[in-house]
Amino acid sequence: MAHISVSPATAAGHRVSPSPRPFSFLYQRNTVPSSIGAVGLRSWSRRASPAASVRAATNSNQAAAEAGTIVNPNEVPVLSFSQAAERLNAFQDSGARNQSYMAMYSSIFGGITTDPSAMVIPIDDHMVHRGHGVFDTAAIMDGHLYELEQHLDRFLRSALMAKIPLPFDRSTVRSILIQTVRASKCTQGSLRYWLSAGPGDFLLSSSGCTNSAFYAIVIESQSLQVPTGCKVVTSSIPIKSPQFAVMKSVNYLPNALTKMEGEENGSFTGIWLDDEGFVAEGSNMNVGFVTKGKELLMPNFDKILSGCTAKRVLTLAEQLVADGRLSGIISRNVSVQEGKAADEMMLIGSGILVKPVVQWDDQIIGSGKEGPIAQALYDLILEDMKSGPPSVRIPVPY
């Protein structure tokens, strides 16, 4: 794996010196240890016993110490750029990351890097400290970008709603994305990209940001999730207002809490209801149903994010109408009672494609097993990703 390399001149004449000794870690009483991480924090938030909390913290601290990523708060070193780069490399080598990052573009340094240690953004970027940014994604399947144009359309709509000007025109953004995937040499995975108000200061308004910033990253993934049945729960987390729900911004705290709430209740995710009590969407996926009359039913997109995958599924589902497996396709308000009484329920999104739901709260959906329509739609979208028309598949010139 490549590493950040800094010449002595770059480091202002300072030679890179190895850390003189391993780091130790102490934390203040009544504070959450910063090294606990996602799993530990969930345990901490459930108010485990003091002894259990100490054990969890101790185990986490030990693992972090072995990775060389924590410090003694009473002896925090002041690092040169080259020493900071060395520690970023050590963090990357520690295995703390759970995904493989193959390439990143940043308009800040105006190029692509394939070194995960260098895949960073400025701390004063308004996307980081104010949530002033939008993002989108596209799947990479067999060396092709799936629905890139459709995702770019939504990306630009979100940018306009968020009042963030593009640093380049659409064709340049598109070219940068394709070149980033080419540099990654990744043929299976996902491409994620962000537009932020940019770095400049820590104030609330973005007026001090000289230029917006554009970032993109390629994440390698060799396998797709098998469409096994799952459970969902009705979310208690307030849904975002329509103005923000239809915009794909980085403000995903409600989404993250909804997903976590589902997991804490032994389910895959939570299901949001809109302000009138109708079915809205999942944490980051759309919801579909098969009615008793064999109609494919989805909630309207006027108050929720219009999922590119969901919209493509609606188009592909016409094949099931043609062969008689579905009687029709419709989008309208769906009550909770109607949803729970459906023959089938499914979650639809780019990360899961089509995932059957077999139980919602205490209600078994249909037969309690994966339904045939959900499986058929999964097969259709997967085949579309592999051999669909040029309108949804763009070859990457590796």
From TrEMBL:
A biological-process GO annotation? amino acid biosynthetic process
Q: InterPro entries per the record?
A: Aminotrans_IV, Aminotransferase-like, BCAT-like_C, BCAT-like_N, Class-IV_PLP-Dep_Aminotrnsfr
Q: Which UniProt keywords apply?
A: Pyridoxal phosphate
Requisite cofactors: pyridoxal 5'-phosphate
Which Gene Ontology terms cover its molecular function? Answer: catalytic activity
Q: Which family does it belong to?
A: Belongs to the class-IV pyridoxal-phosphate-dependent aminotransferase family.
What the entry lists under PANTHER family is as follows: AMINO-ACID AMINOTRANSFERASE, D-AMINO-ACID TRANSAMINASE, CHLOROPLASTIC
Q: What is this protein called?
A: Branched-chain-amino-acid aminotransferase-like protein 3, chloroplastic
Organism whose genome encodes this protein? Eragrostis curvula
